[in-house]
Each structure stands twice: as structure tokens, then as C-alpha cells.
Design brief:
The protein has helices at residues 2-22, 45-50, 98-110, 140-143, 202-210, 224-229, 256-265, 268-275, 289-292, 304-311, 328-343, 372-382, 394-405; strands spanning 29-33, 55-57, 63-65, 68-74, 79-84, 121-125, 128-132, 153-154, 160-161, 166-172, 175-180, 193-197, 216-218, 233-247, 281-282, 319-323, 348-352, 360-366, 410-422, 426-427, 443-444. By secondary structure, the protein is of the alpha+beta class. Strands 1, 10, 11, 12, 13, 14, 15, 16, 17, 18 and 19 form an eleven-stranded mixed sheet that branches. A four-stranded antiparallel sheet has the order 4-5-7-6, with helices on one face. α11 links the parallel β16 and β17 (348-352).
């Protein structure tokens, strides 16, 4: 009996010790390296940590409370009222009010980078914010979870201030320093500080992780399998980035049949199989298959014979193919597309960066929404398409997408995942539904 008691006690102590080792502790710092701008929209890492939105999205895509605690629609979703959470403060101590929320959203709508807002007016009434629109906005709660509508203000120094779990405390030695907000309305995050090093090449990121100089780095889709084979701790999202070719509907490509010929000539399978190493999915749809359920209705197969038959006369001169935010894999994708189009009779020259006069543009578009209707609305806005999606059932969404794609100015190619590799010290790290690290919930080994 005594022996059984001793054994049980030892097992219990071992279990408790194991639990203590795995339980997150407060404190510590992580170094994150990224290739882009931490403030960029819509997926800038600093935006997610410093700023909050009125709503957030659950894994199923439904809107959940954040800076707004509840909301209701009136007048057939032409008018919405969002109640603002009380007791929330910006990092400089300024109380969050409906007036400041409305002012932030008005400033967002006026910014050229956002391309406007889906509502007509936004104003504060008491502790609520009222949205009105000429057309119904049934998915406004989901749209307000997008980071372009995050609530921000400028503090006394002119710096961007928010209500998120981390605040900006400086930029030194090439790193943006974020420090935990002890009084965050969501509760204090585990980490004390986060250092974000922007504009690091993928090669430098991988090297820094291998020598312990970085705790979290990006992993390009084409090297996900290689990183996993090297036994790195790799987190991979669902397909959330659409690689698409956009075609200018004027000049040498003003003819619809010419644009249709280009869409038929592209070889998506080569991009997927060779360049992106079978990560993500081939698609001719504006939504990933798992979200819409109808992407198979947009055939992605290459048909060079039909492309040549519908093309008509080849436009004279050289077409310019611009690559936005070129990475090595995107550069290879552009070269493959240029080869496809040369086989269709077009003369194509590749340039990097945004060029107003380019007839063709290869770009990667990030998707935040996880509900089909809100996602299609978001993608339409990303590509500068006016109007809202009509209906919410799959048939209505398919018809709406057909109407967007019918003029041949957008050619979806491949849906790609986001991936990150974490060092041994990082614990409890997860990705948001759109593939951004949830560092506010992460911890590090050895923190007290």
C-alpha cells in the first residue's frame, strides 16, 4: 500500500512538473524578421499588434465583438449601429470614444490607399457609431474586421497610437520595438517586447533563424516543403494569397477576345507544380475552393489552341508585364507567364514595380475574410471593382463572381498559403485565419 502511494505521488509530481514546464509564463522578447513593411495594409504585423478593429473574425468567418460589443442593422441593412466598448484607452491614456472611432474611420475612407469605404456616412451618436449606405451592407460586421478599418489616432508626438495589446516604443538598430500594454482591455500579453526587423530577404531570415538570431521568420510557399524536411517548426495557413494577372482594358488589349486569349494561354499547372512546389491550389476563381465550393466551375486548364483561335490579330509592339513586390518565386512566375504569352504570339517584356503604363500586372492579393460573401466583397474591392455582391447563397456568389470576371481584366492563377518558421524558444504560437502570427497569445521558453 505504501509503495503504491509513493509511486502515485511520483507520477503526480512528474505530471505537475511537466505542466509547469509547458504552462506559458510572462516575460521575454522575440525577434521577428519579415520581408515587407510591418504597417502595410492589410497584413502588416505591427498593425495587428498595435491597433484593434471594431469586430474580429472567428475561425468560421462570423463576426465577434472587439472594440464594438454589439451591433444591429435597420432599414434592410442600409443602416447599422455599433456600440463602442467602454473602459478602453489608447496607449497614451486617451479614452476610446465613439467620436474618435468615427474620426478614425472617416480618415481611413479619405486615404487614397484604401480606395474609399463601402458605406456612405459614419458618425458618432452617444456611445454608438452609426453607418449608413445607399446600398445594403449585410456583411458590414465582417468587413469591419479588416485591418484597413483598424481604429487609430495620432498621439502628441504625431506617432500612430492604438488600443492593441502592444504599443510602439521606438525604432532602433533597424527594428521596430513593441512593448506589452499592461492595461490592455484584452489582458496583458505574455511577451514583454517584440522586435520586428522589416525588409529582410528570405535568405537572410533563414540564416538568422539557423544561428538563433531570429525567433520567427517568413517561409516562402516554394520552400515550405524544404523547411519541413529540415525539421523546422513550420506553421502553414490555408490558401490566403491569390496570385493574379490583371490586364488593362484599354490600348493594345482593349479587345475582349484578346484578353480572353491571354487567360486561355496561361499555364497555371506549371506555376503550381514547378514554381510553388504544389503548395496551395490551382484556381481560376477569386475565392479558394474551401471557401466558395464552386471554384471548379471556373476551368483553370490551359488551352493554347483555343487561345490562338479567339485572339484575333496580335497587337503590335511589346506588352509590359509589371511584377508588384517581386520575390524570386514571383519573378520566376512572371517569366513563365511571359513564355506562355509568347507561345500565344505576344511579345512581352517584364518590369519590376508598379508602372501606370503596364498592360499586364502580376500581383499577389491577400484575403482576410473567412466568410464567402464578405470574402468576395473584399476581393472585388481589392481589384477596384465597384458594387456589392448580390445574395449570399453559392449560386448568387458564383453569378456575382462571373460578372466580375466576364470582362477579362482579372485572371486568377494560384491560391497560396502563408507560412512561418519559429525557433525553439517560441511557445503556443498560432496563426490567424488569414495566416498572420498571433503573437499576443505566444510565449517564450524560460520566461518567468
Amino acid at each position: 500500500m505504501l509503495r503504491r502511494f509513493v509511486i502515485s505521488s511520483v507520477v503526480l509530481l512528474v505530471a505537475l512538473a511537466a505542466g509547469a514546464r509547458t504552462r506559458p509564463h510572462y516575460g521575454g522578447s522575440v525577434r521577428v524578421e519579415i520581408s515587407g513593411d510591418p504597417w502595410q495594409m492589410p497584413d502588416g504585423l505591427a498593425r495587428r499588434l498595435v491597433l484593434d478593429t471594431l469586430t474580429t473574425l472567428s475561425d468560421s468567418g462570423s463576426a465577434e465583438p472587439a472594440l464594438s460589443t454589439q451591433w444591429q442593422a435597420d432599414n434592410a441593412a442600409h443602416r447599422w449601429e455599433f456600440s463602442i466598448r467602454s473602459g478602453v484607452h489608447f496607449h497614451d491614456g486617451t479614452p476610446l470614444t465613439a467620436e474618435l472611432v468615427a474620426a478614425s474611420l472617416q480618415q481611413t475612407c479619405a486615404a487614397p490607399a484604401t480606395g474609399g469605404c463601402p458605406w456612405s456616412t459614419v458618425r458618432a451618436v452617444g456611445s454608438s457609431v452609426i453607418f449608413t449606405s445607399e446600398s445594403p451592407l449585410p456583411d458590414l460586421p465582417e468587413l469591419l474586421a479588416q485591418t484597413q478599418f483598424a481604429i487609430a489616432r495620432q498621439d502628441a508626438t504625431g506617432a500612430l497610437d492604438g488600443t492593441g495589446p502592444f504599443r510602439v516604443t521606438g525604432f532602433a538598430n533597424g527594428a521596430l520595438m513593441l512593448t506589452a500594454d499592461d492595461d490592455s482591455w484584452q489582458g496583458r500579453p505574455y511577451l514583454d517586447t517584440i522586435q520586428i526587423f522589416p525588409r529582410r530577404t528570405m535568405r537572410d531570415q533563414a540564416l538568422d533563424l539557423s544561428i538563433g538570431r531570429a525567433d520567427l521568420i517568413e517561409v516562402a510557399p516554394d520552400v515550405i516543403r524544404q523547411a519541413q524536411q529540415q525539421h523546422l517548426a513550420v506553421l502553414v495557413s490555408q490558401p490566403v494569397d491569390l496570385l493574379a494577372l490583371t490586364i488593362a482594358p484599354e490600348g493594345p488589349l482593349a479587345n475582349l477576345q484578346t484578353r480572353q486569349s491571354i487567360a486561355l494561354a496561361v499555364d497555371r499547372a506549371a506555376l503550381y507544380n514547378v514554381i510553388f512546389q504544389k503548395q496551395g491550389e490551382i484556381s481560376a476563381s477569386l475565392l479558394p475552393a474551401g471557401l466558395s465550393g464552386y471554384s471548379f466551375l471556373f476551368p483553370p486548364e490551359r488551352n493554347l489552341d483555343r487561345a490562338r483561335s479567339v485572339r484575333g490579330p496580335v497587337p503590335p509592339g511589346t506588352l509590359s508585364l509589371s511584377v508588384i513586390d517581386a520575390t524570386p518565386s514571383l519573378q520566376l512566375a512572371a517569366e513563365r507567364l511571359a513564355l506562355n504569352l509568347r507561345e500565344d504570339g505576344f511579345n512581352v517584356q517584364i518590369t519590376n514595380g508598379s508602372h501606370p503604363g503596364a498592360q499586364l500586372t502580376l500581383r499577389r492579393v491577400h484575403l482576410q475574410a473567412t466568410a464567402p460573401r464578405a470574402a468576395l466583397d473584399e476581393m472585388a474591392a481589392q481589384f477596384g471593382q465597384n458594387g456589392r455582391v448580390n445574395g449570399a447563397d453559392p449560386v448568387a456568389l458564383w453569378q456575382s463572381e462571373q460578372a466580375i470576371l466576364v470582362n477579362g481584366t482579372i485572371v486568377p492563377l494560384v491560391w497560396l498559403p502563408r507560412a512561418w518558421a519559429a525557433g525553439d524558444r517560441v511557445r503556443d504560437l498560432r496563426l490567424s485565419p488569414d495566416g498572420v502570427p498571433l503573437l499576443a497569445n505566444a510565449a517564450v521558453e524560460g520566461a518567468q
